[in-house]
Amino acid sequence: MITGFLLRALDRRISIAIGIILAVALIVPALNLLLPPSNPLHVPTYMMSMLGKYLAYALLALALDLVWGYCGILSLGHGAFFALGGYAMGMYLMRQIGSRGVYGDPVLPDFMVFLNWKELPWFWHGFDMFWFAMVMVLVVPGLLAFIFGWFAFRSRVNGVYLSIITQAMTYALLLAFFRNDMGFGGNNGLTDFKDILGFSVQSSGTRAVLFAMTALMLALSLMIASGIVNSKFGKVLVGVRDAESRVRFLGFRVENIKLFTFVVSAMMAGIAGALFVPQVGIINPGEFAPANSIEVVVWTAVGGRGTLIGPIIGALLVNGGKSYFTGAFPEFWLFALGGLFIAVTLFFPKGIVGTIQHHMAGRRGKGAKPKDNPAKPGNDDAVAHQAAE
Fold first, then answer.
1. At a CB cut-off of 8 Å and minimum separation 6, what does 115 contact?
2. What is residue 350's predicted lDDT score, i.e. its pLDDT?
3. Of 142, 277, 263, whose CA–CA distance to 214 is shortest?
4. Mean pLDDT across the chain, nearest whole number?
5. Which residue from 95, 181, 201, 230 has the fewest beta carbons nearer than 10 Å?
6. What single DSSP character describes residue 369?
7. 216-239 mean pLDDT
8. Tens digits of per-residue pLDDT, 288-301?
C-alpha cells in the first residue's frame, strides 16, 4: 500500500522537484557552515534564515493549492492555520526561556508578569515539552479546519460565499489574539526566544538545521500531496472541483471529501507556521491579517494552481521580489503586487508552471490525429464518470 502510494507520488516531475529541494537542504547549510565569510560562495546566516522563511511560505502555498487547485475551495483564511501553528511553536519557545526573561520568572512569560498574571493559564500547560507542542501544531489547525468544514460543507456553502466566510474566520481570530486577556501576548505577540531543544535559536548551526528541516518538510509534503492527487481519491477531487453535482449524484459524499482535504491542508499550513516562527523570531496577531491569506492566493495563482510545483515557485518568486522591491521601491510594492496578479489573471491564467505545461502538451500533441478525450476539462459528464472509476 505504501509502495503504491510512493509510486503514484513520485512521478518524473515531482521526483525532480523533490530532488532539487533535498539538494538545497544540503547545499545552503553547507555553504553557510563550511565556508568562511570571506569566500564568495558563503551564504550568510541572515540570508539562510530568509530563504528558510521563503520555504515555509512555499509550504503554505502548497497547502492552499491542495484545496484550491484540486478541490475548488478558494480559502481566504489559510493564514489562520499558518498562524495557529506558529503560535503553538511560539508557546513552546516561550516556555524554554524560563528565568532568563526580563522579569526572571521561571514559569510565567514576561508579558504575563507585566500584565500581573498570577498563574499560567491552563492552555499553556504542556508546552514546555517539545513533543506536545508538535502535536498541537497539527491538532489545533486541524481541529479548527474540521469544525469549520463540518458546518460549512454540510451546509453546502460554496464559491465566493465560502471564501468570504474563511476570511471572516481569520479576521475574527485576528481581533481575538489582539486582546491582552487572551493570554497570547496581545499586540506584541510572542518573541525574544532563546532555545529550541536546548540549542540557541541564534546560532548558525541551529539556523542551518531549521533551514534543512523546512526544506525536508516541504519535500515530504509535496510527496504526500502528489500521492493524494494522483490516487483514485485525487480523481474524485478533480471531479468535485469540475462537476460537483454529478459526483454527488454518483453517490459520493462530497462533504466528506472536502472535509478531509481541508483538514490535511490546514495541518500542512500549521507545520509551515511552526517552521516559520523560530527562523523569524516572532509571532504576533498580524499573521492572521486577511491580506496575508490573500497574498498566498497570489503566490499560488502566479505559480499555477493545480500543479503542486507551481505554488512553490510562485511563493519563492513573489517573496523574493517583495524583499527586493520593499527595500528599493517601498512605496510601489503594493502596486506591483496588484499589477502582477492582474497580469497573471489576464495573460497567464494557468500561472507560470501551468502555462509551460500547456505549451509542452500542445507541442507533443501537434501532428497527432485528434481524438475525443473523455477527461477533457469542461466535459462535466466525462469528469464525473472518471471520478467514479
1. 180
2. 85
3. 277
4. 89
5. 181
6. P
7. 93
8. 999 999 999 999 99
pLDDT at 351 over 90: no
> According to the model, what pLDDT value does residue 368 have?
56
**CB-hemisphere CA count at 13 Å for 296?**
33
Strand partners, 196: 199
pLDDT of residue 375: 43
Which residue's C-alpha cell is 476570511? 167
Cα–Cα dist 290/294, whole Å: 6
Dihedrals phi, psi of 31, to nearest 5 degrees: -65, -25
182 neighbors 293 (Cβ within 8 angstroms)? no
Phi/psi for 155 (5° steps) reads -85, 0
Closest CA to 170 of 239, 273, 16: 273
Output DSSP code: residue 283. Answer: E
Q: State the Cα–Cα distance between residues 256 and 233, nearest whole angstrom.
A: 12
Low-confidence winner among 104-108, 279-283, 316-320, 333-337 (lowest mean pLDDT): 333-337
Nearest to 303 by CA among 311, 293, 291, 292: 311
Task: Answer whether 190's CB lies under 8 Å from 284's CB.
Answer: yes
* Helix ranges restricted to H, the chain: 2-9, 12-33, 45-68, 78-95, 110-114, 130-154, 159-177, 204-229, 232-249, 254-280, 290-303, 309-328, 333-347, 351-365, 380-388
